[in-house]
From TrEMBL:
Keywords carried by this UniProt record: DNA-binding
PANTHER family, per the entry: HTH-TYPE TRANSCRIPTIONAL REGULATOR RUTR, HTH-TYPE TRANSCRIPTIONAL REGULATOR UIDR
Source organism of the structure: Sphingobium naphthae
Spans annotated as Disordered: 1-26
Protein name per the record: TetR/AcrR family transcriptional regulator
Domain HTH tetR-type: start-end pairs: 24-84
Listed Pfam families: TetR_C_7 (PF14246), TetR_N (PF00440)
Highest taxon, organism lineage: Bacteria
Transmembrane segments: none
């Protein structure tokens, strides 16, 4: 595509962003524009030409990087969750780390996620995944399966070491994540009304205590002596 074609303005609503001519910067600018528009209008109401306009590129340039809107959503999901997933992997990937350290650390980081743009993306999924099931599939493949996989593996290893009571490791992982997910969604949905929003840091700390009291086995005298 010629430079003249790339400079032709799109006739769509919304102020265009000032163009950056560095080619390597274009994908990130497009993803950022898509995230803004998805949050503002929803997935279904956002047109690819709107994203191109907001990013300051020609529609043809947009399709070079992202052939479909689902591809663009996948890039958005990867972008806003990448750092969080790396942190979660760092916490849970050491399978020899005591589970009494892993669970509180994971829940504390889940509370931090509430201050990112992840909740707005989850809200979008809840509202539009029935009409656009590919969105849920992308979120599952890129995020949910990774988080559940990490926590499930940590639980399985802790059970093998005799730290935790028996039980389905994946269901236990759901029971650990569930209250934080509910609190995050509650804050996202109710932030615009006169509702008392949960403090997710306090919820994380309290939930960690509750879940560990129910899951962690009491050490036998000889085990307690070895750990001391």
């Amino acid at each position: 595509m010629s430079e003249e074609a790339d400079n032709m303005p799109e006739q769509v609503s919304g102020p265009p962003r000032r163009r950056q001519r560095r080619k390597e910067a274009r994908p990130s600018e497009i993803v950022e524009a898509a995230l803004e528009l998805f949050a503002e209008r929803g997935f279904g109401a956002t047109r690819m030409e709107d994203v191109a306009r907001r990013a300051g590129v020609a529609k043809g340039t947009l399709f070079v990087y992202f052939p479909t809107k689902q591809d663009l959503f996948r890039a958005v999901a990867r972008t806003i969750t990448a750092g969080n997933l790396e942190r979660l992997q760092a916490i849970a990937s050491n399978l020899e780390r005591p589970i009494v350290e892993v669970i509180p650390a994971l829940l504390a980081h889940a509370a931090i996620i509430a201050e990112t743009r992840v909740p707005s993306l989850i809200r979008l999924l809840i509202s539009e995944s029935r009409l656009f099931p590919d969105l849920a599939r992308v979120w599952h493949d890129e995020v949910v399966s990774n988080v559940l996989g990490l926590l499930t593996s940590a639980i399985e290893r802790a059970q093998e070491r005799g730290e935790l009571h028996d039980g389905d490791p994946q269901l236990i992982a759901f029971s650990i994540i569930g209250p934080m997910f509910s609190g995050l969604i509650f804050r996202e949905v109710m932030s615009g009304v006169d509702a008392e929003l949960p403090d997710l840091q306090k919820l994380a700390a309290q939930h960690a205590q509750v879940i560990l009291r129910g899951l962690v086995k009491e050490a036998r005298p000889e085990e307690a002596q070895r750990r001391s």
